[in-house]
Amino acid sequence: MSTSGEEAERSFDPARAYRRSRRVALRPEPFGALAYHFGTHKLSFLKTPQLVAVVTSLEQHPDVYAAMEQAGVDQTQRPAYLRALADLAEAGTIEPRLEESGDS
User: Fold this and answer.
1) Is pTM beyond 0.85 here?
2) Contact partners, residue 35, CB within 8 Å, separation at least 6
3) Residue ranges per domain, the chain?
4) Cα–Cα distance between 38 and 17 in angstroms, integer?
5) Which of the listed CATH numbers 3.30.70, 3.40.630, 3.30.470, 3.90.930 matches domain 15-92?
6) Stretch (H or E) spanning 5
């Protein structure tokens, strides 16, 4: 039985705008970073510096694809990055960014 929250988590759409959750802190590490979610107490590993660059720049881009492009993620690596970002969305590390129009 799935809840609406689980359904939303499974609907990661890289064409949408995302941001790092405000409840998540990143701790730089030689391999990338540790991400700690203060709400769920989940710890996630961002296994490459490029993934850290994507996650930290999401808020500055209109979609995930633009953030990957800016971070220099090679085309051949993008499917793996999309899987990692979908997992981060499911964990609540990143979240959809609402438009600032005020209606939503």
Assistant:
1) no
2) 24, 25, 26, 27, 43, 44, 45, 46, 55, 88, 93
3) 15-92
4) 22
5) 3.90.930
6) helix 4-10
Cβ neighbours for 73, distance < 8 A, ≥ 6 positions apart: 50, 54, 81
Take residue 64 and report the two structure tokens written for it.
């995930």
Q: Helices 78-91 and 49-57, interaxial angle, to 10°?
A: 60
pLDDT class for 62, splitting at 50, 70, 90?
very high
Could you tell me how many residues make up the chain? 104
39 vs 18: CA distance, rounded Å: 18
Task: Give residue-wise pLDDT tens across range 2-55.
Answer: 444 444 445 899 999 999 999 999 999 999 999 999 999 999 999 999 999 999
